[in-house]
Amino acid sequence: MDANGVTLSDGQRIETNTVIWTAGVIASALTEQIPAERDRLGRLHVDRNLQVIGLPDVFATGDVAYAATDDLGNRALMTCQHAISLGRSAGNNVAASLLGVEAMPYSQPKYVTCLDLGAWGAVFTEGWEREVKFIKDEAKAIKQQINSVWIYPPAANRAEALAAADPSIPVVA
After folding, report:
1. Per-residue pLDDT tens for 124-153?
2. How many Å apart are CA 32 and CA 17, to the nearest integer?
């Protein structure tokens, strides 16, 4: 792609000022080394503690975990919203397993989407039905906070990093 268009793999050139790229997502191919059940995206089936089903010493998180978010049948998506909470839970539960203490089951019933639409603003939805809650400037402000504050790790400070890893931190957006 360049400022005036896109050149396809067969050499065909399409002149345009706008290019919309859509792509699917799949789990890392590294999961193929684990002898366990996967969903159609290659994610490993895990229990509520994020242990791979049938492999009690193996945990999965983020984009490779096919994890229930609630008791209603919803599953974590391949998004930073879910990855952050999944990572907190998996880290806690791996440590709990090693220390022989009780794990904290993963649960993330709150689901939102926030789509930045450029100069127009953004759209913010809540719930698996994606009920629109905010649009334009108000939603754009939320999206900017998500991108600049919420999804980035704390500074290289041990106490802040450990505090941010707490799996009991509620998902606010």
Report:
1. 999 999 999 999 999 999 999 988 887 776
2. 40
Phi, psi of 113 (to 5 degrees): -130, 150
Rounded Cα distance between 65 and 86, Å, is 8
CB 88 within 8 A of CB 96: no
**pTM (predicted TM-score):** 0.79
Contact criterion met (CB below 8 Å) for 51 and 34? no
113: closest CA among 141, 134, 89? 134
The token duo for 124 is: 């913010």
Instruction: Give the start-to-end residue ranges of the domains of the chain.
Output: 1-109, 111-168
Q: Name the H helices within 75-116.
A: 80-99
Class for the domain spanning 1-109: alpha beta
DSSP state of 93: H
